[in-house]
Amino acid sequence: MVEADALSDLHLAVKAVLGEAPVDFCVQPALHRRKRLLIADMDSTIIGCECLDELADFAGVKAEVSAITERAMRGEIGFEGALRERVGMLRGLPIGALEQCYAERVRLNPGARTLVMTMALHGARCALVSGGFSFFTSRVAAKAGFHTDRANTLIEADGVLTGVVGDPILGREAKLAALCEDAAALGIDLTETLAIGDGANDLAMIKAAGLGVAYRAKPLVAAEADARIDHTDLTSLLYFQGYRADQFAKDGD
User: Fold this and answer.
1) Under 8 Å CB-to-CB from 39, ≥6 apart: which residues?
2) Catalytic residue among 9, 24, 41, 53
3) pLDDT digits (tens, 9 = 90+) for 225-252
4) Which of these is catalytic: 5, 9, 24, 43?
5) Which of 37, 58, 146, 205 could form a disulfide with 193 if both were Cys (CB 3.0 to 4.6 A apart)?
6) Global confidence as pTM
7) How far does CA 140 lie from the centroid of its chain?
8) Three-state DSSP state, 200
9) pLDDT tens, 61-82?
10) Backbone angles phi, psi at 40, to 5 degrees
């Protein structure tokens, strides 16, 4: 408790000195600074869009779906109900729209591949855990270099989406479970883990991880995270862990 209070006081002191300067920083214990497990959210964290909102554009309902997404990410409404409602609005969308959406709109955020490839190079396990959909996480995980991915499943029939998402829903508690299960499988303590995300359904894993980081996050998440990335790219997570630029993976971004 004494250490936690000291870190909090130091964090506030650094923040006061920086003021409104566009600087991202992290105050943390030196012990276990370099993490052995990365758990990352996908939408608006590893990639620069919300896949469900983009799919909704192909169905002609983006404005309606995006409004629900925003409320869910801010924690104003429950994630599971919001997901089912939004997916229901995609009923009848041709399966080909998923491939088109991925090809035209899904892009890794700056620093994402360098972050994942560098941590993997130095022996860390990297997992992509999303409240989105496996169609996208499987492709994004391969592109960024994650070892594993977990997500929800869109149910299809006769070449179109049925408007139903498979059970069980992967949401806030499932993300926390993924963090705990993967840490246990590696035989490491949660202090040796790193979690990053931007929305309310990421908050449980962010608060439980040894280092929980909010990436351009909603206010609720930013206020609870150990550190924030608001100005720089995802390689800041490497600097937070003590990596030097010359230690970054050569086949990164």
Assistant:
1) 127, 129, 175, 178, 179, 182, 193, 194, 195, 196, 205, 209
2) 41
3) 999 999 999 999 999 999 999 999 998 8
4) 43
5) 37
6) 0.94
7) 12
8) helix
9) 999 999 999 999 999 999 999 9
10) -125, 140
